[in-house]
Amino acid sequence: MQVRSLELFRVQVPLKERFVTSHSTLGEVERILLRITCHGSSGVGQVTSWGEVGVYGYPSYIYETPEVAEIALCNYLAPLVFYSPFESALEVSERLARVVGYPASKAGLEAALLGCFALDQGKSLVELFGDLLGELGPDPSYFNPDDSGVSTASLQSLVARPTLGVDRDLERFNDRVLRCISEGYTHLKLKILAETDPAMLAEVVRGYPTVTFVGDCNGAFRLSNPADLARLVELDKVGLAFLEQPLVGQDLRGSAELRRKVSTPICLDEAIDSLETLTSAIELGALDAVSIKIPRIGSITGALRCAVAARSKGLGAWCGGVHDLGVGKLTNIALAACGAFDLPGDLTPSDFFYDRDVLVEPIRVCDGTVGVSDTPGLGGQIDEAQLERFTKSYKILRG
Fold first, then answer.
1. Strands of 157-159's sheet, edge to edge?
2. 130-371 belongs to which homologous superfamily?
3. N or C, where is the chain less crowded by C-beta within 10 Å?
4. pTM listed for this prediction
5. How does pLDDT run across 181-224, given as a tens digit for each residue?
6. 270-293, pLDDT tens digit by residue?
């Protein structure tokens, strides 16, 4: 697989409504979309696919920004992919690992290249990811295709789970939850601030006993703060399926201590940025599950390795999202469906966060599930007119 050209589209897409978390308030999302063209090795000739660099305009959640990612891609990563042909899909992440850091940039570039490999082999992205999972050699005994939300390459849909930003108005918050339930969702994630009222949250959660709720704190609490610990103890009584990333940063020892103080299972997200960090968290007893985000881990193969490590120790794993546009959503859906994950992930339709996406055919949710594409490659086509509308700047690099 020889890379011929790499195109960078820096896009800015408005959200339908402001999205509030413990670390930021978003009104729009800035991304870099990558289009890569390769000469295939199986006789199909030229193939083209897409990747999404999952960054934000300000480094409050991921340290890379579009400016940083563009420098990394143009100056460091592109020369690596132009250097020589790729012999296998696994080789992509191995070669990009020669550059230290820039996980979101690496992940977006790898995703685009793996899309080309899938097209070249006539496989869907989920089939290719399933092949990669097999090459990593996990013990199949702990992968149960009947688990809630888990899927294998043979399944056609996945449980979807939208995320609702912070809302301090109980009536409005409850209306948003009810609207999601009326659309068929059975799993919801609710953002939590340090000042979130546990009683208000409990009223919503207990009002819908058939719905599974996850509370995502985005590192809003510090265990050393007595007020924070008291609030976490109160949140433990709400009835959430998981408390996601309750503590700030990579406080793995603190997470292990908190886990001994509460009965709600703990899921780590921001704290886990590599297989090594996950291994340390597992050894410390710091988590019950892990939210694995491709832009944070830095590669799809790395995300698969993390899922394998978690599942082999009896922990849960889900595929996390970062307000993905259609390209990133399709990549996440394929990853979530390849057989490595056992819990519903952060999967939403195209119109959940955005009025318009960059796909010709939007991703849709029906009865709380999202379809898994079985067509070769990424599984969706880019709407060139919409792409042009959202694009702020453009670059093309040639090998």
1. 157-159, 369-371, 365-366
2. Enolase-like C-terminal domain (3.20.20.120)
3. C
4. 0.94
5. 999 999 999 999 999 999 999 999 999 999 999 999 999 999 99
6. 999 999 999 999 999 999 999 999
